[in-house]
């Protein structure tokens, strides 16, 4: 791979990063707050590629010697022995992430990742939870409800109705559960938060179907078959299927 090919691959990679960052595609891979850093990185790659191409393709002044890199290699890739000098072919592997972003675009983590990984819910640093949002039902995240139900034993939930959005996965005894993936930084560290469902349980939906459920606190506690961690339950009063949200991670 010569420098011109390197620059083209770098340009494609930077363009792919910019395309993912400007659209909502990046939300499949990283947290929402990282968008400015992705845009900056994409711009830097594009500028570096353009500058490399300009340096390589600019016309040579008449009578000017070939540029030397300080070790006897000319600008045109000659190593001084009459043979062209090329960079390692492994550089072509950089095209793989480009193709992945432009052509394949893997989906966000879903039910398969949730079923293979144990529920992850860390104990809060403080024991007091803020009041639930106004409205009936109160809209809360799967993570917020699970933490209140498990560590606060539902005290901060009371008898309030809550509305949660998540995807359907398969839990213990092949029963449907409600789950949402939580990121610390990117999809590589994504971990599921799982809720058992009782009452009007969504039935007949395939895995990865997104639903809104309205329910109340249930004191029932289950166990995750993957890591034996506790899973809180929700008493479902009603539910409806909804499109996948723009940001599928909590």
UniProtKB/TrEMBL annotation:
Q: Which residues cross the membrane?
A: 36-55, 90-109
Annotated region (Disordered), positions in chain:
65-85
Keyword Ubl conjugation found: no
InterPro entries with a match to the protein in the record: DUF1980 (IPR015402), DUF1980_C (IPR048447), UPF0703_membrane_permease (IPR052955)
Tell me which domain of life the UniProt entry assigns to the organism this sequence originates from. Bacteria
For this UniProt record, give its keywords in alphabetical order, as a comma-separated list.
Membrane, Transmembrane, Transmembrane helix
**Membrane listed as a keyword:** yes
Kindly give the Pfam families that the UniProt entry links to this protein.
Answer: DUF1980_C
Enumerate composition-biased segments (Basic and acidic residues): 66-85
DUF1980 domain mapped to chain residues: 159-249
PANTHER family the UniProt entry points to: UPF0703 PROTEIN YCGQ
Q: What is this protein called?
A: Membrane protein
Q: What is the lineage of its organism?
A: Bacteria, Bacillati, Actinomycetota, Actinomycetes, Micromonosporales
